[in-house]
Give the backbone structure.
Amino acid sequence: MKNQILNIEGMTCAACAKAVERTSKRVDGVIEANVNFASEKLSLTYDETKVKLEDVQKSIEKAGYKALVESTTKTLSIEGMTCAACAKAVERVCKRLDGVIEANVNFASEKLNITFEPAKIRLIEIKNAVEKSGYKLVEESTVDLHKEKKEEERKLLWKKFVVSAIFTVPLLYISMGHMLGFPIPSILHPTMHPKNFAVIQFLLVLPVVIIGNKFYKIGFKALLRKEPNMDSLIAIGTLAAFLYGMFAIYKIFAGEVQYANNLYFESAGVILTLITLGKYLETVTKGKTSEAIKKLMGLAPKTARILKEDNEVEIPIDEVEVQDIIIVKPGERLPVDGIVMEGITSIDESMLTGESIPVEKNIGDKVIGGSINKNGFIKYKATRVGKDTALAQIIKLVEEAQGSKAPIAKMADIIAGYFVPVVITLALLAAIGWKIYGESNVFALTIFISVLVIACPCALGLATPTAIMVGTGKGAEYGVLIKSGEALETAHRIETVVFDKTGTITEGKPKVTDIITSEGISEEYLLQIAASGEKGSEHPLGEAIVKQGEEKELEFKMVEKFEAIPGQGIKAFIEEKKVLLGNKKLMSENNIDLKEFGEISNRLAEEGKTPMYVALEDKLAGIIAVADTVKENSKNAIEKLHKMGIEVVMITGDNKRTAEAIGRQVGIDRVLAEVLPEDKAKEVKKLQSEGKKVAMVGDGINDAPALAQADVGIAIGSGTDVAMESADIVLMKSDLMDVGTAIQLSKKTIRNIKENLFWAFGYNTIGIPVAMGFLHIFGGPLLNPMIGAAAMSFSSVSVLLNALRLKTFRPN
């Protein structure tokens, strides 16, 4: 199974997006295809054994669109070439590499122009491959083709609008001025010189029609493919007006001068001009919806300073390799992820985690690429480079989320798919109906054009993806990574939040607080035995005992056999003695009598400490109590959820008394204690069986099944990769306050989507009947096609502007 994001070119409305989706899904081997009309991207999941990406691209091309892989073009100088055969050799080497789309070598200028997929191959890999064949590549320039194309498209639309407006304004004045009492030269007056009046309008509208030729090309092509789109509506409407105007000129020249009052050139000109303006405003506002991604992409510096043979060398970021030693001075951005080897500093990670306070970094601490070194000089070893860095992963997550669909979008998609054919049918029926009713050809034509130009599937198609793009981008700003549109939608319906205890509500760094021993056993010996046994364990409670042993500088004894018993503890043999260390369950299963310390263990548990029993040769030797401190914000986060009307549950493998003590401390509603790791998912399922939408918050490997089972899985950013992979939402700064932020953001985004859909549906529900002449039946006015065109443009822009309001989101 392979996932691929493709840039789609040639789409003009939501109907186009639906056509691309349909075409992709028809290809055998394609499992899922989602088009985001706002970002013009296709998110594709396909079976590589059944279909090649090229086949999907070809079928999309046949449907009249272009599907392009996200690519980068670079120009590199080549050193070491001596003849044309060398140039061919370099080309061959590059083209063989997986991820290289195009490679052209100019032997005369000694330049390689190469286009490749950064998601598949890094520049350093291309350089290494060329170097192996005996040549050397030196970087010159980088071009973001997609960004350049978008910028060119924006500029071209503005030029088209300005030139169209230059011809349309005098056209409108000449055609309508005499009706409004404006002064018009007698040579252009319809009653005095009808021929002049008609011809000058034709000459003014002709350049506007030529400038808007793209509407006709795309619109009629889509119509011939039986997949009409918004351009089809504009093309039919304006061409009808233009052709009727030419018919009127013919009649005027034939002597029927009354046709001077039936010219429709100004409608065609104004409609095309207004729609072009609408398209321009749409591209500008669309660009703003993906600003969060652009900000993130701009975080990574272009170069890195590395230590090479005791010298500082500045190299392109693509050439940084794992294990390189990187030097960062105060005020500079870190190029890649790594571990501090030398120096002390504080680092601003706010753009990545949303955490505004700089984080202190010492030797051995992890650092993130894209963050800012505030005041110290550090050297650090690169651990993750290229597409493996945290920043690259965040960009990938946000891009995937923006390319995914929320379930709420499906209804709008279905309607958008049928929208244009229904509108064309309604326009024809309305025009024919009024003609049969006895109205003139001009009246029927007005109705026909008005219905076509007021209908707008774009507003429907933009309603959901724009809000999701802004919402997920805003989440990323606050360190809340929402991995899909579905997660964003589901989060607003959450009624119960389940928190794992260790490492989520608590710090996950327990400390030994009490050591109680049986008669004849010293505290030192009990700790020595327990620490020796736990040396092989990875459990946080075991680590606390080992740490205490190390602090007391105890000698660790040799462990002959070791067995970790999930959810219970450990069994080991030390100095040929059987040692059991764990909870009450482990002791009762091995028939160890606990009466001696019954009251003590209860007291410890009520204090929020976890009693760990130690048994030697099947006899209780003592208790080592371990306490895990509650995270600073846990109580506030739970209060925040309570204010939102959400029930809070805590799940833990800890004993009931300890769990309840911590639950009381932070205000938990329900405590599920003594739950084995493998049973956490079952407990989540039980809560779901009560008919509740459940979110699970966790950080460890043993939380992964529960995160996957929950309606929304929320992983703490400091947790394991497995937990983050299984989750739907990742909290980058490991702050539980962000659980509430994620739910609030979801509620705001879904409300925004509903507002957008209401506006889009409402606009069309009111606009189309008015255009069909329903008000006219009861003596009301007819809708002028020019007003319809203005309303159509405004509907898309208003939906985009409403989505952009999400940028003002601030968590409570």
Observations:
- The domain at 304-388 is CATH 2.70.150.10 (Calcium-transporting ATPase, cytoplasmic transduction domain A).
- The mean pLDDT is 85.
- Residues 100 and 196 are 60 Å apart (CA to CA).
